[in-house]
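Allow me, if you will, to draw on your knowledge of protein folds for a short while. I have a record of one protein: its chain in single-letter code and its fold written as discrete structure tokens. I should value your view on which stretches of the chain appear to form regular backbone elements. Thank you for your consideration; the sequence and its tokens are set out here:
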Amino acid sequence: MSEGPWLIVGLGNPGPQYACNRHNVGQMVLDELARRTGATFGSRGGLLSRRPQAAVAESRLGVLPGGAPGPRVVLAKPTTFMNVSGGPVASLAQYYGVPAERVVMVHDELDIPFAEIKLKIGGGEGGHNGLRDTTKALGTKDYVRVRVGVGRPPGRMDPADYVLRDFTGPERKDLPWLVDAAADAVELVVTEGLERAQLKYHTRA
């Protein structure tokens, strides 16, 4: 597990008007990971394209069993809109030499109740446009997903409208805990493996 690096991507939409939306919870988790490691996000547009496509920070994350420093990680927040996230992800993976199985996508998930976290590698995208575009750009579904539950919309609300709304007042009380737990899940994936992380987060009370 110490051989790296890993590419950890938080999905969301750019701009302050979207920053607190449910759809941007992945980027909230990336901000927490950067805070933990003392890393600072900067542009990586010049080496990838003529326009900035992602805010990137490089660091080490966590501690390996036995006490050695955790693996090298590239933390990335695409600066494109959600439905065209794949290009920046694929470009970063190619530039840093990261295989798909070491790409970790952190994203909101409608089909998981709010404040629950599930993890998987491969499988379908569940209608998530950011994941669909990432699969297309990488040419494979076999990347890790840290799925942060935001729950289903109430009544007949359009799911597309629901994810582009901010968390409710009661949800915001639990949001710091959820973001922290999702960051813990990412850290466990890169230090001890996906199966260990699944065992912990899929069996939580």
Q: What stands out?
A: DSSP finds six helices and seven strands in the chain. The chain has one domain: 6-201. Residues 6-201 form a domain with the Rossmann fold fold (CATH 3.40.50.1470).
